[in-house]
Design a protein that fits this description.
71% of the residues lie in helices and 6% in strands. The chain is mostly helical and 163 residues long. Helix 3 crosses helix 6. The chain has a two-stranded antiparallel sheet. It has seven helices and two strands. The chain is elongated, with a radius of gyration of 22 Å.
């Protein structure tokens, strides 16, 4: 075996070992695993709720508004965890689609109170089966006894990091 072949073999073996090491590190990285789980959840939602035309974040915003109509965009940022600029884009898209409307808030004339339109309520109802199917598919990989515990842990993380 020549020097080049020997060097290539050593490089491939090192890369193989590093790949295994990095893979193991990623399997213990909460940041990476939460991100990957979120990616899979988005993929599943887009497949399950495709006909609604909503993204998971748009669905979350509509759900939040449905739970408490009249919220401002700042309230929506606080409740959904979606950053301000992304939320502004989502609101603009939902307005353009006629799913929400807004008017000046009574408490603060600088802010807008956001409500669902009748089309928004319909869009939300249309997306709910896909969202439920997404949750079911995600949770199905866990033993039934662990599903609520998993949700509780995620809620603990979200709540603790919001402080």
């Amino acid at each position: 075996m020549g020097a080049t072949q020997s060097g290539n073999a050593l490089r491939r073996e090192t890369e193989r070992q590093m790949g295994a090491k990095n893979s193991n590190q990623l399997e213990r990285s909460a940041t990476h695993l939460i991100h990957r789980a979120g990616q899979r959840a988005t993929d599943i939602f887009q497949a399950e709720a495709r006909d609604s035309g909503l993204t998971p974040r748009q669905f979350a915003v509509l759900m939040t508004i449905a739970d408490e109509e009249g919220l401002t965009q700042t309230d929506l940022v606080d409740r959904t965890g979606i950053d301000r600029s992304t939320l502004a884009d989502i609101v603009a898209r939902l307005l353009a689609r006629g799913l929400i409307h807004r008017k000046r808030a009574k408490e603060d004339g600088r802010a807008y109170a956001i409500k669902l339109t009748s089309q928004g309520w319909k869009g939300l109802r249309d997306a709910e089966p896909g969202a439920a199917a997404t949750d079911s598919r995600l949770l199905a990989v866990l033993p039934p006894a662990k599903r609520q515990e998993f949700l509780d842990i995620l809620n603990t993380i979200v709540t603790a990091m919001n402080k």
